[in-house]
């Protein structure tokens, strides 16, 4: 049974994020203990087990809900009694849902769960040493326990001991290998040893981390006495059997993740060859002195060494998906209250993020939430929970959410475009993905290339992933940004400005952009070196660009050192240099490009105002623990930001009431903040859901709506005056218009600067009819159904039609117009509806509308694009002769390969040459010949011969000529070429089956010729005309052609019976073999004579017909095909054979001749009295002497009825016409 894998973590890794924010969100105090020593998180059922001094063991589980927001209450909070010493080790059995704990007294307890309540199941106490390592294998069937004195015990789930052994060293840690067989032990000397499943020593792992340590560290301490803190393999977690449906025995195809592929590879391949398949480091060894070694397998020759300067490691744990490692410890060069730090490191050893846990002297353990978005750490007597907010490489353009995840099974990245309005999903696959940036309706994707055009490939895409433009660049894409006309790619001290081309721009804009070069620049240095097209080389510095943001004419580039450059988009020159805090990771400018919001690597958001010559910091606006932010696209002093689990809107210097939110902010417009739960998208990236996109209205919008809903116009106006925003003025205008308060609506439009709205207010002020005034307001506000109802109620259908015509709602126009009549408005509406269907590729509906409005041109185009050729053919029949569209329809039929329909169209409009050319182009030479004779055109036979000469050469090309002549009705010429091919293949000693097939093909062409002639005769009613036709045909055929027609099947028969003879011999049917071999004597002109008589002699000798054998041997001796030595060998063989077996006629069974009833021998093929030649059964090779027989309708050959039933087709021509 294949176990089902647990997939609870979002699909993200170091390649799909830019950074990672972390902050403490919750604290749980554990009473009755002074210090917690360890913590482990159950991945299946979310239990958290933590243990400490004085035998404290606690099981808790947070309330289910949003992982990011966290929970303030515990659904499980149980203290387990049984230990008296300090808890040192905790191990979960994920499959069987068991908990194993041990303390300083050596006591081991196994706990079981029932209805979320944990009970003691087994106890073991060796009373000799302390347990230093303990763990279950991946399927939960075996447990390994390592003691400090070197004793190792491996047992079963039921508590039975499998083996135990005293190792000749003191131990520090133990760990199972992913295959569940090998065990790894860390010693107190810093070494790691590998043992097999029965306790035999295999190898000692080469610890490069100890060999390459810096000299100062080596002098400061004895490394070989530094303890190993952790040894951890990452492998996927199986789903628990407790919750799994017992009836399910197969693994769902959708569950097989990349983790399953990794595990299956480890189980299937040889351990020594594992590094050929696995590239990600999944095995870590962490030392207390701040060094960690990452490996692919135990014998990895190129491990990754991760160093933490001045850092003492206390614990290290893999993330649930194996992409990150959480490392806890103390930074010894920091103040004492800031020394406790949690580092997040990628599986490739890259530092991703860190979190300081202040005011603590103890940081002993760390555990990951199953989602990978939260960690738990033990400090003193508390458990702190830290939220992880990855800065995903994602974007939002138009109404499309774009995110990236890695398909590890295909070694590529999938970029998903989820259109939130239509809920459509488009996926784009890229290799070596690097960066993504979005702006309005477009996005930039950058991935690494391995070609000569450049190192990186950038493509401009729309909201469904369609590439609109592309560019190659050598700049490492650490940061990417874009606006409506250009993009900037930056890395190191260089930046690349790309002036891309958008399809909808007019030719003037295109010309202006084409004149601009796309160059690579270096900060404070002009482009230097030689040109390569539009790219130039540069000299890199050390101060790397860490963040970008872009305006219409310039962009800002922040460096790690704190330098901020204002750079022109037009020529790439540095306009101004400012100073900002160091390590800025993200920047955004407001809608007027006068303010900057900058987020640093400590998750602090700071604000700056751009002056003419300086950059001024806005005081008292700094926000901590920020992980997402976005400026209002309409108001310059409003920004929305996510701070821990709350979303806050800043209006100037005033913060609105926070709103609970865990979504990343993608847009802020119209006083509405749209957030995206990217974490949830990445939990199931192949199937995104719209419920993960939330719109949050800010407080001022909610308050304004509250006042307007209660029709408090004056109060609402005063409120909006104080909180002015275009969205609020629009709401006020709409409500005022509905209430017919024209003056207030006009005031709102004045505030908006909406000239059309002001004109509308003035226009409806002059309308005296209140109902018509309401209808106009309804139409202005987009309430067209209400406006239509009001218009019709006042008998003003003309105004309703004008409204829908103005809004291009032609379907409504058709509904309002009378059904009869041919007025121009109705025809125009039908045509526009057809255009609507045409644009959406609804071809049949569009063709129907074009037919109704009489637009034949658009109808033809629609039928061609929709491949509706049946209706197009019907249309061509109804068009009058010489119609202008007939040629166009004929060309469409020609492109489709519909020769007959195309010819009819061309002949109908008098284009005879086009009809002839179509027939030639489509190889319909018979029709071409008929057209040429009817209209006295050029000789088609010459054209056909010339074309056939071009396609002849090899046998394969000659077969093309065969098909060509056959299409032209020249069947005899086709057969000639086939038989010529057969002769060439015979000279090449081709297989008999191929030769038979070629001869069958030629014979079938001759049969087709006979059928063609018979069909012509049936159309002749006059006997004399028929007779004259036959004579004419005979006179037109040469003697060679006549012989070819008469002997069409002889070649196929020869090779058929030759293969049958050999088949009989191999199958032991010796009598039938001799009979069939004697049939071959009739085909000496086709087959090799020596081969024929050899088969006759062999089969006759086997059945002891030595007279027949003697005649065959005499014939062989007389052939000139053999050399003198071979002929002498044949004579010696004959003498030896016939001296022992005289060549006399053997008695055999007799049969009656079908003509004269004379008895004939079993091997006779004709009657010696009446000389009747018997037909041969093509199924057995025997003479056919029955009066009833089976006849093939295609080749006209016969067979015994009881023999042919064994076949599914004719044995000779393989036709199924008679079956």
TrEMBL record:
PANTHER family: LD29485P (PTHR12764:SF5), WD REPEAT DOMAIN-RELATED (PTHR12764). It comes from Caenorhabditis auriculariae. Residues 394-697 form the IFT121 second beta-propeller domain. GO terms for cellular component: intraciliary transport particle A; non-motile cilium. Keywords: Cell projection, Cilium, Cilium biogenesis/degradation, Cytoplasm, Cytoskeleton, Repeat, WD repeat. The keyword Cytoplasm applies. InterPro entries: Beta-prop_IFT121_2nd (IPR056158), Beta-prop_IFT121_TULP_N (IPR056159), Ift122/121 (IPR039857), Quino_amine_DH_bsu (IPR011044), TPR_IFT121 (IPR057979), TPR_IFT80_172_dom (IPR056157), TPR_WDR35 (IPR057361), WD40/YVTN_repeat-like_dom_sf (IPR015943). The lineage of its organism: Eukaryota, Metazoa, Ecdysozoa, Nematoda, Chromadorea. Residues 1046-1144 form the IFT121-like TPR repeats domain. Pfam families: Beta-prop_WDR35_2nd, Beta-prop_WDR35_TULP_N, TPR_IFT121, TPR_IFT80_172, TPR_WDR35, Zf_2nd_IFT121. One of its GO terms (biological process) is protein localization to cilium. Residues 728-816 form the IFT80/172/WDR35 TPR domain. Residues 20-235, 267-389 form the IFT121/TULP4 N-terminal domain. Residues 1175-1216 form the IFT121-like zinc finger domain. WD repeats lie at residues 80-115. PROSITE patterns: WD_REPEATS_2 (PS50082), WD_REPEATS_REGION (PS50294). It is found in: Cytoplasm, Cytoskeleton, Cilium basal body. SMART domains: WD40 (SM00320). This is Anaphase-promoting complex subunit 4 WD40 domain-containing protein.
């Amino acid at each position: 049974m294949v176990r089902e894998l647990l997939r609870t973590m979002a699909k993200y890794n170091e390649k799909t994020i830019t950074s990672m924010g972390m902050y403490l969100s919750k604290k749980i105090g554990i009473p009755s203990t002074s210090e917690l020593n360890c913590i482990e998180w159950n991945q299946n059922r979310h239990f958290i087990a933590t243990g400490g001094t004085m035998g404290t063991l606690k099981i808790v589980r947070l309330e289910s809900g949003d992982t990011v927001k966290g929970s303030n209450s515990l659904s499980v909070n149980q203290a387990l009694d049984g230990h008296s010493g300090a808890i040192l080790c905790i191990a979960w059995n994920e499959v069987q849902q068991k908990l194993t704990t041990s303390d300083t007294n050596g006591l081991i307890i196994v706990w079981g769960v029932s209805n979320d309540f944990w009970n003691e199941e087994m106890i073991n106490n060796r009373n000799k040493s302390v347990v230093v390592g303990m763990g279950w294998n991946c399927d939960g069937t075996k447990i390994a326990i390592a003691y400090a004195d070197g004793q190792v015990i491996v047992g079963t789930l039921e508590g039975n001991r499998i083996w135990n052994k005293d190792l000749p060293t003191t131990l520090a840690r133990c760990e199972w290998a992913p295959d569940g067989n090998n065990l790894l032990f860390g010693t107190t000397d810093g070494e790691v040893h590998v043992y097999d499943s029965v306790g035999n020593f295999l190898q000692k792992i080469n610890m490069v981390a100890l060999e390459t340590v810096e000299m100062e560290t080596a002098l400061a301490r004895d490394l070989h006495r530094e303890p190993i803190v952790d040894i951890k393999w990452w492998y996927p977690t199986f789903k628990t059997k407790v919750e799994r449906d017992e009836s399910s025995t197969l693994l769902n195809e959708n569950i097989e993740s990349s983790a399953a592929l990794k595990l299956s590879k480890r189980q299937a391949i040889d351990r020594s060859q594992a590094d050929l398949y696995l590239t990600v480091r999944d095995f870590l060894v962490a030392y207390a002195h701040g060094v960690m070694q990452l490996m692919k397998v135990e014998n990895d020759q190129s491990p990754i060494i991760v160093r933490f300067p001045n850092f003492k490691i206390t614990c290290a744990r893999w993330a649930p998906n194996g992409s990150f490692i959480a490392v806890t410890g103390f930074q010894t060069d920091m103040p004492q209250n800031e020394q406790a730090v949690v580092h997040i490191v990628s599986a490739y050893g890259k530092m991703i993020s860190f979190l300081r846990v202040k005011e603590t002297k103890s940081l002993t353990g760390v555990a990951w939430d199953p989602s990978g978005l939260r960690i738990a750490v033990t400090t003193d007597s508390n458990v702190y929970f830290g939220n992880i907010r990855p800065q995903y490489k994602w974007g939002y353009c138009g109404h499309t959410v774009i995110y990236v995840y890695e398909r590890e099974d295909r070694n590529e990245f999938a970029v998903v475009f989820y259109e939130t309005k239509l809920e459509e999903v488009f996926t784009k696959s890229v290799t070596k993905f690097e960066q993504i940036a979005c702006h309005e309706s477009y996005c930039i994707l950058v991935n690494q290339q391995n070609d000569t055009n450049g190192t990186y490939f950038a493509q401009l895409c729309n909201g469904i992933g369609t590439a609109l433009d592309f560019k190659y660049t050598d700049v490492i894409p650490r940061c990417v940004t874009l606006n409506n006309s250009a993009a900037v790619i930056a890395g190191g001290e260089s930046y690349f400005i790309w002036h891309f081309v958008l399809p909808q721009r007019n030719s003037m804009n295109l010309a202006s952009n084409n004149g601009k070069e796309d160059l690579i620049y270096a900060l404070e240095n002009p482009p230097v070196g030689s040109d390569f097209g539009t790219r130039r080389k540069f000299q890199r510095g050390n101060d790397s660009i860490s963040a970008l943001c872009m305006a219409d004419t310039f962009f800002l580039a922040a460096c790690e050192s704190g330098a901020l450059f204002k750079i022109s988009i037009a020529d790439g020159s540095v306009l101004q240099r400012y100073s900002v805090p160091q390590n800025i990771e993200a920047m955004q400018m407001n809608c007027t490009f006068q303010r900057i919001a900058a987020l640093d690597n400590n998750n602090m958001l700071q604000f700056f105002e751009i002056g003419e010559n300086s950059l001024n910091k806005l005081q008292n606006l700094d926000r901590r623990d920020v992980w997402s932010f976005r400026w209002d696209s309409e108001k310059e002093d409003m920004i929305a930001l996510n701070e821990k689990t709350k979303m806050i809107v800043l209006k100037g210097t005033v913060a609105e009431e926070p709103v609970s939110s865990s979504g990343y902010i993608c847009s802020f417009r119209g006083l509405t903040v749209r957030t995206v739960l990217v974490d949830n998208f990445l939990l199931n990236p192949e199937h995104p859901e719209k419920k993960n996109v939330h719109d949050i209205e800010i407080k001022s919008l909610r308050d304004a709506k509250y006042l307007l809903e209660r029709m408090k116009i004056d109060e609402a106006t005063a409120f909006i005056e104080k909180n002015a925003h275009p969205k609020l003025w629009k709401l006020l205008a709409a409500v005022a218009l509905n209430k017919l308060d024209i003056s207030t609506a006009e005031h709102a439009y004045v505030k908006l600067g909406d000239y059309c709205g002001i004109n509308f207010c003035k226009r409806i002020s002059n309308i005296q009819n209140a109902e018509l005034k309401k209808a106009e307001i309804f139409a202005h506000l987009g309430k067209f159904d209400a406006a239509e109802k009001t218009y019709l109620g006042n008998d003003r259908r003309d105004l309703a039609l004008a409204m829908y015509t103005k809004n291009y709602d032609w379907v409504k126009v058709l509904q309002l117009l009378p059904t009869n009549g041919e007025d121009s408005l109705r025809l125009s509406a039908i045509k526009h509806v057809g255009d609507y269907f045409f644009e959406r590729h609804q071809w049949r509906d569009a063709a129907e509308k074009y037919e109704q409005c009489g637009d034949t041109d658009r109808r033809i185009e629609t039928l061609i694009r929709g491949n509706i050729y049946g209706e197009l053919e019907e249309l061509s029949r109804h068009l009058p002769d010489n119609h202008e569209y007939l040629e166009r329809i004929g060309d469409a039929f020609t492109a489709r390969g519909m020769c007959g329909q195309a010819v009819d169209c061309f002949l109908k409009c008098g284009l005879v040459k086009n009809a002839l050319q179509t027939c030639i182009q489509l190889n319909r030479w018979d029709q071409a010949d008929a057209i040429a004779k009817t209209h006295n055109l050029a000789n088609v036979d010459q054209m056909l011969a010339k074309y056939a000469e071009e396609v002849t050469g090899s046998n394969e090309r000659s077969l093309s000529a065969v098909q060509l002549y056959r299409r032209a009705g020249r069947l005899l010429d086709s057969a000639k070429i086939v038989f010529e091919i057969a002769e060439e293949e015979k000279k090449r000693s081709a297989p008999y089956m191929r030769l038979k097939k070629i001869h069958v093909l030629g014979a079938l062409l001759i049969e087709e010729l006979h059928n063609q002639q018979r069909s012509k005769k049936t159309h002749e009613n006059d006997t004399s005309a028929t007779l004259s036709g036959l004579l004419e045909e005979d006179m037109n055929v040469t003697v060679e052609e006549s012989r070819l027609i008469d002997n069409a099947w002889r070649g196929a028969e020869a090779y058929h019976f030759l293969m049958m003879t050999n088949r009989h011999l191999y199958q032991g049917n010796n009598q039938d073999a001799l009979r069939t071999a004697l049939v071959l004597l009739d085909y000496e002109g086709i087959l090799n004579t020596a081969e024929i008589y050899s088969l006759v002699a062999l089969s006759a000798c086997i059945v002891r017909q030595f007279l027949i054998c003697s005649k065959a041997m005499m014939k062989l001796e007389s052939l000139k095909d053999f050399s003198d030595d071979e002929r002498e060998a044949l004579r010696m063989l004959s003498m030896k054979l016939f001296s022992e077996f005289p060549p006399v006629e053997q008695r055999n069974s007799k049969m009656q001749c079908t003509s004269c009833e004379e008895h004939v021998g079993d091997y006779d093929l004709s009657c010696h009295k009446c000389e009747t030649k018997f037909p041969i059964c093509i199924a057995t090779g025997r003479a056919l002497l029955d009066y009833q027989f089976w006849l093939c309708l295609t080749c006209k050959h016969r067979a015994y009825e009881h023999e042919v039933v064994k076949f599914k087709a004719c044995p000779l021509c393989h036709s199924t016409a008679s079956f």
